[in-house]
Specification:
The protein is an all-alpha fold. The protein has two domains: about 220 residues, no CATH class; about 260 residues, no CATH class. The protein contains 23 helices and three strands. The two termini are about 40 Å apart. This is DUF885 domain-containing protein.
Length: about 575
C-alpha cells in the first residue's frame, strides 16, 4: 500500500470538498458538478465523519519531520487543522438548532446563490434543471435534522423560526420564480423556462411549503425565546460553542478571552469616535455622534441606483490606487451587483462572490439596495473597500493564480484569514487616501466598532447567556449602524455561533504582524512585499500566517514577486 504524502492528500481533500459542496464547485467553474446538490442528511454526515477520521489517521502517518518543503509543511498543518475542526463541528451540530433567514440559512443560500449561476451553454442549462429538481431532497433532509434536534430537546430560536416562515411566505407569494433568474444559453429559452416552472411548481415549491408548515405549526411552538437566544441554552451548546470559537479563530483563545478583547477594542474606538465626531459634527459626545450618523436623513440614500453608482465609483478609485501598495497582478475583474431581492430583506449589507476559474464570470461585490432610504451613505466606502478592492476581490482573485499551491489552498476560505484581511483593508484604505472625508472615515470607525462589538455580543449570547435584546442594545450604544442592520446582525450571530469573531481577531493579528515587521526591518520594510507575503500563500490559519511572516522577516523582508 502506497504511503500517504502531503500533496496527494491535499488533492484528495479538495476533491472531497467539491463533492460535498457541488454548488460551490459550480461557482468555481468545475462543471462536472453542475447537476449535483449537497446531501445534508444525517446518514450522509455520518459517512463524512467516517471519511474525516480515516483521512486524519492517514495524515498523521506523515511525520512532520519528514516534510521538508516549507509550503508542504503549511499544507499538512492546514489539512490537519481543517479536518479536526470539521469533526468537532459535526459533533456539535450547532447548525441543527440555528435555522434562520440570514445568510447562514441553507434555504437562503439556495435562494441567493442558484439564480446567480452562469449558464453559458446547453450542457450547463440542462444541468441546472437537473439540479433544480433535486432541491426538494436538500430541503427535506435539512428539515428532518431540525425535527430530530427538536425531538432531542435541542430547540430552534423563536426569532429564527419566524424569519424562516416569513422568508418562505415571501418566496411562495412572489410573481417571478427566483430560481429561474439565470439566463440559459444554447437552448430554447421559452421551453427551458416552461420546464423549470413545472419543476418549481410540482417539486420545489411543495418542499418549501413543507418547511413553512413545519416552522409555523411545529418548530416555532417549542422554540427558544429571546432570553435564551444563545446556544449555551441548548444541551451540549456551551461545549460546542468553545469548539466553534477555536474553529473560526484558528486560535486556542477561550470565549472569555475573546469577550475581554472585544470590550477593550470597543472602549478604544469610542475615543476615536469622539475625536472624529468633533471634526465632523462639532461634538465629542459619542451618543450624540452615533445618533446623528444613524438618524440624519441627509446622510441616507434616496435610490438603489445611487448605492450601486457609489459602489462602482469606490471600486474604481481603489483600483487606481493599488500600484503604490501592491504589486501589479494580472487577475480577474470585479463587478458590482445588487443582492437578489428574494433574500435582501434579511441579508447583510454586502457579500462577495469569487470569479470562476475559467474566466467566464468576474468576481462580484453584491451590495444590499433593499429599502435604500434605510441605508447610510457614509458606510458604503469602507464596505466597498472590504468586499472588492483591496479586500476580498484582490485576495480571492490573486489566490486563484497561485499555481504552485494545492487547489484547496488556492480556492479555500479560512474565515479568520479572509475576513481579517477584509477588515484590515478598511484601515489600509485610509492609509491609501481613499476615503472622501471625515464623514466616510467615521463610517470606517463605525465598521470597526461593529466588528469589535461582535467579539462582545457573539460571546455574550453564546457563552454568557445574554438575551437578544441585550445584544441589540449593546450594538446600538457602540456603533452607528441603523436599528434594522443591528437586528439583522444580531440574528445572524444567533444563527451562526462563532463566525462573527473571525473578523476582528484576524485583523488584529495582521496588524500585529505588520507592526512587528516594520519594527524589525526598519527602512528595509516594503509594504508591497509584506502584502504579497500575506496573500501569496493562499488562505491560511493564523499560526501559519505568523510562521510565514516570521520567516520572511528573518530573511530580511525580500520581495518574492516574480511579475
Amino acid at each position: 500500500m502506497k504511503e500517504p504524502d502531503t500533496r496527494s492528500m491535499a488533492e484528495e481533500f479538495f476533491g472531497e470538498s467539491l463533492a460535498q459542496g457541488p454548488i460551490g464547485a459550480s461557482f468555481l467553474g468545475y462543471r462536472e458538478y453542475d447537476a449535483e446538490v449537497p446531501d445534508p442528511s444525517a446518514e450522509a454526515e455520518a459517512g463524512r465523519q467516517e471519511w474525516r477520521r480515516g483521512f486524519l489517521d492517514r495524515l498523521d502517518r506523515i511525520s512532520p519531520d519528514a516534510v521538508t518543503d516549507p509550503e508542504d509543511r503549511i499544507t499538512r498543518s492546514m489539512l490537519r487543522r481543517r479536518v479536526v475542526d470539521d469533526i468537532a463541528a459535526s459533533e456539535a451540530a450547532l447548525e441543527d438548532v440555528s435555522a434562520s433567514a440570514t445568510i447562514a440559512g441553507p434555504q437562503t443560500s439556495l435562494l441567493s446563490s442558484l439564480p446567480n449561476l452562469g449558464l453559458p451553454d446547453a450542457e450547463a442549462s440542462e444541468a441546472y434543471l437537473e439540479r433544480l429538481a433535486k432541491i426538494p431532497a436538500v430541503l427535506d433532509a435539512h428539515l428532518e435534522r431540525y425535527r430530530s434536534a427538536d425531538a432531542e430537546g435541542r430547540r430552534q430560536t423563536r426569532v429564527g423560526a419566524a424569519s424562516v416562515a416569513a422568508q418562505i411566505r415571501g418566496y411562495l407569494g412572489s410573481e417571478e420564480e427566483v430560481f429561474l433568474g439565470a439566463k440559459p444559453e444554447g437552448v430554447d429559452a421559452d421551453r427551458w423556462r416552461e420546464r423549470g416552472e413545472r419543476i418549481c411548481r410540482d417539486a420545489v415549491r411543495p418542499a418549501f411549503e413543507r418547511w413553512l408548515t413545519a416552522f409555523e405549526n411545529d418548530l416555532a411552538v417549542r422554540a427558544r425565546g429571546g432570553e435564551e437566544a444563545g446556544v449555551c441554552h441548548v444541551p451540549g451548546g456551551a461545549e460546542g460553542y468553545e469548539k466553534a470559537v477555536a474553529r473560526h479563530t484558528t486560535t486556542d483563545m477561550t470565549a472569555e478571552e475573546v469577550h475581554g478583547i472585544g470590550l477593550e477594542r470597543v472602549a478604544l474606538l469610542r475615543e476615536e469616535f469622539s475625536a472624529l465626531g468633533l471634526k465632523a459634527f462639532g461634538t465629542s459626545d459619542v451618543g450624540a455622534i452615533t445618533g446623528l450618523l444613524r438618524d440624519r436623513e441627509d446622510l441616507r440614500y434616496q435610490s438603489s441606483d445611487e448605492i450601486l453608482s457609489d459602489a462602482l465609483d469606490n471600486l474604481s478609485r481603489a483600483e487606481a490606487a493599488l500600484p503604490d501598495w501592491f504589486h501589479s497582478y494580472d487577475f480577474a475583474p470585479c463587478t458590482v451587483k445588487p443582492i437578489p431581492a428574494a433574500v435582501a430583506a434579511d441579508s447583510t449589507l454586502a457579500y462577495y462572490q469569487p470569479p470562476s476559474i475559467d474566466g467566464s464570470r468576474p468576481g462580484t461585490h453584491f451590495v444590499n439596495v433593499h429599502e435604500p432610504r434605510s441605508r447610510t451613505r457614509f458606510e458604503y466606502e469602507a464596505l466597498a473597500f472590504h468586499e472588492s478592492v483591496p479586500g476580498h476581490h484582490l485576495q480571492f482573485a490573486l489566490g486563484q493564480r497561485l499555481d504552485g499551491l494545492p487547489r484547496f489552498r488556492r480556492h479555500g476560505y479560512i474565515t479568520v484569514f479572509g475576513e481579517g484581511w477584509g477588515l484590515y483593508t478598511e484601515r489600509l484604505a485610509d492609509e491609501m487616501g481613499l476615503y472622501s472625508g471625515d464623514l466616510a472615515r467615521l463610517g470606517m470607525v463605525s465598521f470597526d466598532a461593529w466588528r469589535a462589538c461582535r467579539l462582545v455580543v457573539d460571546t455574550g449570547l453564546h457563552a454568557e447567556g445574554w438575551s437578544r435584546d441585550e445584544a441589540i442594545a449593546f450594538m446600538e450604544a457602540n456603533t452607528a449602524l441603523s436599528r434594522s442592520n443591528i437586528v439583522n446582525e444580531v440574528d445572524r450571530y444567533i444563527a451562526w455561533p462563532g463566525q462573527a469573531l473571525a473578523y476582528m481577531v484576524g485583523r488584529l493579528h495582521i496588524d500585529r504582524l505588520r507592526a512587528d515587521a516594520e519594527r524589525e526591518l526598519g527602512s528595509g520594510f516594503d509594504v508591497r512585499a509584506f502584502h504579497h507575503e500575506v496573500l501569496g500563500h493562499g488562505s491560511v490559519p493564523l499560526p501559519a500566517l505568523s510562521e510565514i511572516i516570521g520567516d520572511w522577516v528573518a530573511e530580511g523582508g525580500p520581495s518574492r514577486w516574480e511579475g
